[in-house]
Amino acid sequence: MGVTKNISFSYLEFENADELPASDRELISTALNAAGLAYAPYSKFRVGAAVRLESGRMVHGSNVENAAFPSGTCAERTALAAAVSNFPDDSPVAIAITAITENGDIAESVSPCGNCRQVIAEEETRRGKQIRIILCMKKKIRVIESISLLLPLQFNMNSLRQDPPSQ
Ligand SMILES: [Zn+2]
What we know:
- The protein is an alpha+beta fold.
- It is built from 5 helices and 6 strands; from the N terminus they run E-H-E-E-H-E-H-E-E-H-H.
- The chain has a 6-stranded mixed β-sheet, with helices on both faces.
- The chain starts with 11 loop residues before the first strand and ends in a 7-residue tail after the last helix.
């Protein structure tokens, strides 16, 4: 008989951005602008992400789709790859994510896909600094203090560093 283990987590939810600090509002605004720049002719779901680096610098990205579907890239990974490759010594501390639907509204629901959670987690783990996730939706904003909360029991570099089992 197994033992039941529970995982739960808390996050903050806001009805509008006015309740957030100015730096978060600025990050959301940058993500929203990035969504407007997305190349999403297939899904028509334009996603924007903006990464805040420790220095305060912001780097944005949007989804870039492709006729060969798996070749497309999510906004979160576009933004994070741009941040990491251009500013390798500046740690990501937050990422705001939002999306615009086909009719021009902000999406009712936004959440990073599994691939993006894994990629954000790599940055958090290797730098040992939490990355806040700010999800900006039409009627609410969710703030999650660490990607590890969205990716529990994650596989990461520590998983590779386990001591070999004793014989
Ligand atoms: Zn993704």
